[in-house]
Amino acid sequence: MNSNSTNQAAAKHELTQYFDELTRSNGNIRLVGICTEDGFDIQSKTDRFHSMDAAKLAAIASSISSLSNSTAQQLNREGFNIVIIETNHGNILFMRARYLGEPCVISMATSNSSSLAQDRFELKRVFKKVQSITAPI
């Protein structure tokens, strides 16, 4: 295994631990995931009551991000910050970020027990953590 692969594995391990702790410690978070901008899953985690198809989630997150960014560019001449989908059972949020220097999309699904403000706060915490992860040198 070369050093680049080892560094990426260490960074992914850090991300996995963070997602595990986040879903354990916050009962409102049903799912948290990160994918490449072109729709490939990097890491995802659900709480113990839900399941998902990680590849499908990554493809959906990538598509929603791309469409949202195009719409924001056309209407406001700037990219989007957060996309929120409100449902009867909770919220689904998407945010663009960078992971190991590469563009990515963060996804988070929450229960209807949390407020939109709480969901945005948690998503921004995830964003900061994802942005802070670097591959060890």
Structure in words:
- There is one protein chain.
- The model has no long low-confidence stretch (mean pLDDT 91).
- A hairpin with a 4-residue loop joins strand 1 and strand 2.
- 46% of the residues lie in helices and 28% in strands.
- It has 137 residues and is α+β, with helices and mostly antiparallel strands.
- The chain has a five-stranded antiparallel beta sheet with strand order 2-1-5-4-3, with helices on both faces.
- The protein is globular, with a radius of gyration of 15 Å.
- The two termini are 15 Å apart.
- The longest helix has 23 residues.
Residue runs with pLDDT of under 50 for 5 or more positions: none
Straight-line distance between termini: 15 Å
Structural class by SSE content: alpha+beta
Please tell me how large the radius of gyration is: 15 Å
Q: Tally of extended strands?
A: 5
Shape: globular
Strand content: 25-35%
| Biggest sheet details | 5 strands, antiparallel
User: What is the topology, as strand order, of the major beta sheet?
Assistant: 2-1-5-4-3
Number of helices: 3
Question: Could you estimate the helical fraction of the residues in percent?
Answer: 40-55%
- Spell out the helices and strands N to C: HEEHEEEH
Mean residue pLDDT: 91
